[in-house]
Design a protein that fits this description.
two-stranded antiparallel sheet, two-stranded antiparallel ribbon, binds zinc ion
């Protein structure tokens, strides 16, 4: 089973000369150690990547969840390559997947991780949030082809593929809801007034497009637009995933984006990354709010900062979402009388009575009953 997906052997040059050349050019480690003491992988006299790996006749499941892949000796049917006039055998092969290698002709290390320990390592937050993990592929050695393929999938979009359609899928990744939002913002004036998380209130997802809702409340000033109570969901993204995280932040601030480059443009300057864009484009406001909060608090006043979404709340000092700051009921749509669940005698009620400043960031994204309850 493992051998079907991951290989750590030099291909037979007579049977598969193409793969042999790709492996030779991209997947041979070193040589290091006794053969080359100046290799960059050498740390304190030994190879930090643990090459050369031992010869093994059959693939075995490793105790730490990482298998030991089959690496046959040259006496046992294994092949060798000659690099810088040094003969290297299967002990020097970085594990790879033949399909990926043949397709991209680049250094792509593939490993199987099967223990609970290794799965937990990959999905660090296995017990909370959505069941997605983001993987990054980066440059090693001098082989840069991989980036060309990654570049087109700018939003870190996950693309699923098989051996037969991999090239096509990467050239034309399937339309995402974000790309469909860009599309309606190009043609629909009402869409241009919206933030991405708001789109689901007014549009439904149909045949890979957003189309206006037919049911719901009329929207003043926009004949033909209907509003429903549905809320869009933007996946929680770990800040370590820098570009996706800042893309996500921008989507909470930029109305009616028509493209990724639109999102990256502030005051007619297009920034190279979402993070770079975020600094002048958005943090200006957050910075101002934080100054106001600090001013009130420095004179022993009470200032409460809250934001509609958790992602904006993480940027404010003393941050909270409005639901937790004001103990708003969660079912704002269905209840008749709106009150905050705060006891009049409680400390929290006292704080609210005495407070000098309430900042409600992203207020257009909150339900109006939320304000009514708080007031
Ligand atoms: Zn090494």
């Amino acid at each position: 089973m493992i051998d079907k997906f991951v290989c750590a052997e030099i291909p037979n040059p007579d049977v598969d000369p193409l793969l042999y050349d790709i492996v030779k050019a991209n997947m041979i480690h070193g040589p290091c150690g006794l053969l080359n003491k100046n290799s960059p992988c050498i740390k304190e006299g030994v190879c930090s990547k643990r090459y050369p790996v031992t010869i093994i006749q059959e693939t075995q499941r490793g105790e730490d969840g990482y298998p030991k892949y089959r690496r046959r000796s040259t006496n046992d049917g294994g092949f060798k390559v000659s690099i810088k006039s040094i003969d290297l055998d299967n002990r020097w092969v970085v594990p790879y997947n033949p399909v990926l290698l043949r397709t991209f002709s680049a250094h792509i290390n593939v490993e199987i991780t099967s223990s609970i320990k290794s799965i937990k390592y990959v999905c660090k937050y296995v017990t909370e949030g959505s069941d997605h993990a983001a993987f990054g592929l980066g440059k090693t050695d001098n082989t840069d082809e991989l980036k060309i393929y990654l570049k087109v999938v700018e939003n870190g979009q996950r693309v699923y593929f098989t051996a037969n359609n991999v090239a096509q899928r990467i050239e034309n990744p399937p339309t995402t809801t974000l790309q469909a939002f860009f599309q309606i913002c190009q043609t629909d004036n009402f869409a241009r007034t919206l933030l991405y998380p708001q789109v689901a209130s007014y549009y439904v997802w149909k045949n890979k497009n957003f189309v206006r809702r037919k049911q719901g409340q009329n929207v003043e000033g926009w004949p033909g637009v209907k509003k429903d109570t549905a809320l869009g969901r933007v996946y929680k993204i770990h800040p370590n995933n820098v570009e996706c995280y800042h893309l996500c932040l921008l989507l909470h601030y930029v109305k009616g984006p028509t493209s990724y480059s639109f999102l990256k443009t502030v005051n007619n300057i297009e920034y190279p990354t979402f993070r770079a864009t975020y600094a002048p484009g958005v943090t200006g406001k957050t910075h101002l709010i934080n100054i106001l909060l600090a001013k009130v608090r420095s004179s022993y006043g009470i200032a409460i900062a809250a934001a509609s979404s958790g992602i904006a709340a993480t940027l404010l000092h003393g941050r909270k979402t409005v639901h937790s700051a004001f103990k708003l009921p969660l079912n704002l749509n269905t209840i008749e009388i709106q009150t905050c669940n705060i006891n009049k005698q409680s400390n929290m009620a006292n704080v609210l009575k005495k407070c000098n400043l309430i900042v409600w960031d992203e207020s257009p994204m909150s339900h109006k009953k939320g304000f009514e309850a708080t007031v």
